C-alpha cells in the first residue's frame, strides 16, 4: 500500500482527530511568540540605558498583533475533543490545546509587565534551585584563552553564504532573511520556515559553526521533519517542546565541536537572569547582577538582561541549560535521538509519539542531525562539566 493510501485509511479511522488537528493548524499557523516578543527599538533604548549609567529603565516597543486573541481562544475551545474516542489521543490534544491557548495569552500580554511574566511562567516555568546551582558551577570556571576562531570578522552576508553551504547537504529549502528586530544574531522562524540573520551583526568562525549546528541542524531539521508528519501538531509543537528542542540544539553544538566554555557560560548567565525575575529584579537590577557582580562586559550583559526582561519577564532562556542536561543524559545512557527530531516534540511525550507510530499516525524522520552520529568535541573541561550537572 502506498504511503498516500495508507494515510487515507488512517484518516478514515481517525476522522475527528484529523479534523481537529487541521482546525488547530489553521488557527495557530501564523502565531509565533518570538516574532512578537522581540522589541523593535532595542538599539535606541540600549544607548539611553548606557548614557544613564545603567539607571534608566528601558521602554521597549513591540510588534502589533495580527490576530484577535479573544476570537482565537473562542475557536480553540469550540473544538469538540470528546469526538476523539481514543483516551491517549484525547489527552494529547487536550494538552496541546491548553498549550496553544497559553501561548496566545502570553502573546496578548506582551509589554504588560508582571501580567506577561506570569503567563510566561505557565509555559516556561522558572529556574529551580538545582538549575541555579548548575549555572553557578559553570560560572566558577576560569575563562579559556581566546582562540583565533572567536574573532568577529564575518558580515551578515558572509554568514548567509556559510549557512547556505552548511545546508547544502539537506534537500529542504533554506530561506534566509535579514532582520533588525531579533534578540539573537540568528534564529529560525518556524511559522515561515525561515532562518533570520541580524542585519548588522558580525560573526566569528566559531559562532557560524555554532549557529549552523543549532539553528539549521536542529531547529530547521525538526521544522521540516514535522511538516512531513501526518499530524500538524508535530510542526506547531507539543507541550514542553522548547526545553527539548533547545537542549537538542545546544547538544548539536557540543557534538559538532562548536560548543565552548564561553558559550556554556552564556547559557548559565541566562539562568541567573531568569532567576532574578522571580526575585522582583527590574532591568537595572538584573544588569547590575550580570555586569557588576559577575563581571560580564556591558554589551553581553545588556543582551542577557534584554532576553530575560523582554515582554515583561520572559523565562524561556532558563531552559537551554536544563534541556542540554536532559539530552546529554539520554546520550550517556545510549538512548536514541531520532524520535526527538521527528518534529517539535518533547521528551515527556515520547511514549505518545511511539503510540502514534504504532497507529500509523507518525512516521520515521526524513532528515537527521549529522553531528549526533560522531562526537567531535575534544574539550575535556566541557565533558567534566556536563558529566557533573545535577
Report the end-to-end length measured between terminal Cα atoms: 49 Å
Question: Mean pLDDT across all residues, rounded?
Answer: 92
Number of strands: 3
Compressed to H and E, one letter per element, the order equals HHHHHHHHHEEEHHHHHHHHH
- Category from helices, strands and their pairing: mainly alpha
Summarize the structure.
The chain has one domain (3-387).
List the helices and strands and how they pair.
Elements: H1 3-13, H2 15-28, H3 33-37, H4 42-51, H5 69-76, H6 87-108, H7 114-124, H8 129-139, H9 156-166, E1 175-179, E2 186-189, E3 194-198, H10 205-227, H11 233-236, H12 241-256, H13 261-278, H14 283-293, H15 298-309, H16 319-332, H17 350-358, H18 380-387
Helix pairs in contact: 2-6, 5-6, 6-7, 8-13, 10-12, 12-16, 13-14, 13-15, 14-15
What distinguishing features does this structure have?
three-stranded mixed β-sheet; 18 helices; 3 strands
Can you tell me about this structure?
- With 390 residues, the chain is mainly alpha-helical.
- The protein has helices at 3-13, 15-28, 33-37, 42-51, 69-76, 87-108, 114-124, 129-139, 156-166, 205-227, 233-236, 241-256, 261-278, 283-293, 298-309, 319-332, 350-358, 380-387; strands at residues 175-179, 186-189, 194-198.
- It has a 3-stranded mixed β-sheet with strand order 1-3-2, with helices on one face.
- Strand 2 and strand 3 (194-198) form a beta hairpin.
- The longest helix has 23 residues, at 205-227.
- The protein is globular.
- The model has no long low-confidence stretch (mean pLDDT 92).
Amino acid at each position: 500500500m502506498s504511503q498516500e493510501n495508507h494515510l487515507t485509511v488512517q484518516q478514515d479511522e481517525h476522522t475527528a482527530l484529523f479534523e481537529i488537528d487541521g482546525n488547530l493548524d489553521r488557527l495557530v499557523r501564523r502565531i509565533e511568540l518570538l516574532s512578537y516578543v522581540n522589541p523593535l527599538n532595542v538599539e535606541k533604548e540600549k544607548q539611553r540605558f548606557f548614557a544613564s549609567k545603567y539607571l534608566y529603565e528601558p521602554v521597549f516597543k513591540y510588534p502589533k498583533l495580527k490576530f484577535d486573541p479573544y476570537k482565537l481562544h473562542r475557536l480553540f475551545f469550540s473544538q469538540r475533543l470528546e469526538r476523539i474516542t481514543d483516551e491517549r489521543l484525547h489527552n494529547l490534544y487536550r494538552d496541546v490545546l491548553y498549550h496553544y491557548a497559553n501561548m496566545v495569552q502570553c502573546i496578548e500580554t506582551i509589554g504588560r509587565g508582571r501580567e506577561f511574566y506570569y503567563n510566561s511562567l505557565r509555559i516556561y516555568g522558572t529556574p529551580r534551585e538545582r538549575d541555579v546551582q548548575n549555572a553557578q558551577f559553570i560560572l566558577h570556571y576560569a575563562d579559556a584563552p581566546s582562540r583565533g576562531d572567536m574573532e568577529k570578522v564575518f558580515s551578515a552576508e558572509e554568514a548567509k553564504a556559510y549557512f547556505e553551504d552548511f545546508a547544502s547537504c539537506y534537500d529542504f529549502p533554506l530561506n534566509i532573511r535579514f532582520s533588525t528586530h531579533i534578540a539573537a544574531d540568528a534564529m529560525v522562524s518556524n511559522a515561515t520556515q525561515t532562518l533570520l540573520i541580524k542585519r548588522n551583526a558580525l560573526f566569528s568562525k566559531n559562532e557560524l559553526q555554532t549557529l549552523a549546528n543549532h539553528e539549521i541542524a536542529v531547529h530547521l531539521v525538526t521544522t521540516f521533519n514535522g511538516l512531513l508528519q501526518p499530524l500538524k501538531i508535530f510542526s506547531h509543537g507539543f507541550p514542553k517542546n522548547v526545553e527539548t528542542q533547545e537542549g537538542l540544539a545546544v547538544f548539536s553544538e557540543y557534538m559538532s565541536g562548536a560548543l565552548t566554555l564561553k558559550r556554556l557560560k552564556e547559557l548559565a548567565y541566562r539562568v541567573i537572569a531568569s532567576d532574578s525575575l522571580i526575585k522582583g529584579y527590574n532591568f537595572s537590577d538584573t544588569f547590575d547582577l550580570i555586569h557588576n557582580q559577575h563581571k560580564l562586559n556591558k554589551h553581553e550583559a545588556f543582551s542577557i538582561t534584554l532576553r530575560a526582561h523582554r515582554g515583561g519577564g520572559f523565562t524561556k532562556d532558563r531552559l537551554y541549560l536544563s534541556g542540554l542536561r536532559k539530552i546529554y543524559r539520554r546520550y550517556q545512557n545510549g538512548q536514541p535521538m531520532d524520535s526527538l527530531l521527528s518534529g517539535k516534540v518533547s521528551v515527556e511525550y515520547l511514549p505518545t509519539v511511539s503510540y502514534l507510530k504504532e497507529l500509523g499516525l507518525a512516521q520515521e524522520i526524513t532528515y537527521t542531525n549529522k553531528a549526533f552520529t560522531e562526537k567531535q568535541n575534544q574539550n575535556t573541561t566541557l565533558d567534566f562539566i556536563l558529566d557533573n550537572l545535577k
